Sequence to fold (233 residues):
Amino acid sequence: AQTVTQSQPEMSVQEAETVTLSCTYDTSESDYYLFWYKQPPSRQMILVIRQEAYKQQNATENRFSVNFQKAAKSFSLKISDSQLGDAAMYFCAYRSRLQGAQKLVFGQGTRLTINP
Amino acid sequence: EAGVAQSPRYKIIEKRQSVAFWCNPISGHATLYWYQQILGQGPKLLIQFQNNGVVDDSQLPKDRFSAERLKGVDSTLKIQPAKLEDSAVYLCASSFPLGSGRADTQYFGPGTRLTVL
Fold:
């Protein structure tokens, strides 16, 4: 079974600075998806960014980018120019591409605080 | 485009009572998921539907939890009887149909926070 590990329960960063959240995963599959979701106090999970394992190029979405290291099974999220609205729980998630195995497997989450 | 709708947002019950949660997915999303998120943890899949058929319910505690999606759109998740350890946020998510080429991303509703006393 796949597992996802986020080793940083909490992180903090000064507004406008850059922060990196870590995620590692374990799988025997070669093709899969990886995601970062943001969960603010409202509880709604919001997709931040996704990466397809067969793509070597790291995904980017505006101020958010990932460092995908397939051999190391590492998938970190970099947030540039941090804003107060970025404060939330961040979850890393894995999804197989095998037919019938569509569930997301989540890590334990990292609470990100933005200091003004 | 309307997102995933869930109700109620909050529910407080006593142990051994029953409770039901409702979810309406994004229009056109044939695949629907129910996740349980216990405080301090990441969400865990309870059940997955494709249209009105169950794809994966391996982690659903079937002695007390049940779910249905009779017409392939709305879904209801029920707990009967509730236990203290069922206190959690219940998240509903939806995606395009499996095999459509667009099923990779799941979109979540606001969740229902259940407290069992």
